[in-house]
Amino acid sequence: MSVVVDSITKIYGTQKALDQVSFKVEPGQVVGFLGPNGAGKSTMMKIISCFIPQTDGKVTVEGFDVNSDPLEVRRRVGYLPEHNPLYLDMYVKEFLLFIGQIQLSRHEALQRTREMIELTGLGPEQNKKISELSKGYRQRVGLAQSMIHAPGVLILDEPTTGLDPNQLVEIRNLIRNIGREKTVILSTHIMQEVEAICNRVIIINKGKIVADEDTSRLRAQAGGRNVIRVEFDKEVEAAELSSIPGVLKVRKEKDKTWALEGAAEADIRQELFRFAVDRGLSVLMMQKEENNLETVFRQLTVDK
Ligand code: ADP
Ligand code: MG
After folding, report:
1. How far is CA 168 from CA 112, 140, 179, in A?
2. What percent of the chain has pLDDT over 90?
């Protein structure tokens, strides 16, 4: 296993930020750590990267314990913090070399700096000052910095927050490429990001894991839901709606608004129209629920 998190609890003062969180990450997996603000994502990442100690539980990285073997862990982990501080007055290449020499010999650091500039597409910018770079390019510097010592495990805390749409796509592609060779745990509060980059998603809410699934399986489950929201001009009985061919489940959302769930492959809209016409009802609104993964995320994390 690359990373083993065993029953981790973190308490800040009186606040429990993580409550007995456990998961294992296999070599080569790209895991999305998904959750709303305050869920405990950054706390978990800081513990794995040896930046803060846990209150209880155990974490190992490639077999080394974060408490008893922090140096071995740091050698194996690359960590990109949420608001990554960069030395704005340094030049890109100079900065990477400086960071590299913390853990490597000058010769190795030079070579790795060259490789990282190549990998992250920083070639044309390598002789610029970091302060002159766009946010997207600064984030490339951050990624290069986190990988300079060739760690097997990368921990990226909200690596795309604050990027414009083009930069976002570029950084996601870069992370996807990197993920082919490394174990990656990245945090985000955006479901689409997980879909775009990760093969597994761990959803965390209020310090607890509420889902841990292959992205494809979660998508299949979510895709299996086929929900139509409909508003009539008059009151209708649930039993009547249940009798519509193809309708599996009926839920009242408001007075005259209903959510009707059909089988994945069925389109219940035509039958629904027929139902309305037969009873002299007007359909004021009919909406097919889109982006089902987003819905799953909301169901798991809102008001829980
Ligand atoms: P996320 O990264 O998912 O937004 P965090 O791990 O940053 O969540 O925070 C989890 C909870 O712990 C939040 O309620 C936050 O306010 C609290 N917290 C985080 N860091 C500290 C700290 N240094 N002192 C006190 N509370 C903290
Ligand atoms: Mg955070």
Report:
1. 25, 11, 16
2. 75
For the chain, the distance separating the N- and C-terminal CA atoms, rounded to the nearest angstrom, is: 31
| DSSP, res 129 | B
Confidence of residue 300 (pLDDT cuts 50, 70, 90): confident
- Tell me how crowded residue 73 is: count the other CB atoms within 10 A of its CB: 24
* Three-state DSSP state, 87: coil
**Per-residue model confidence as pLDDT tens digits over 58-75:** 999 999 999 999 999 999
10 lines ligand 1 (CB under 6 A): no
Task: Tell me, in angstroms, the distance from the centre of ligand 1 to residue 22's CA.
Answer: 18
| Residues, CB within 5 angstroms of ligand 2 (ion) | 41-42
Write the CB contacts of 274 (distance below 8 Å, at least 6 apart in sequence): none
275 vs 247: CA distance, rounded Å: 12
Answer whether 2's CB lies under 8 Å from 25's CB. yes
CA distance 263 to 249: 9
- The pTM score is 0.81
pLDDT at 68: 97
Q: Would you put residue 198 in left (φ > 0), alpha (ψ -120 to 50) or beta?
A: beta
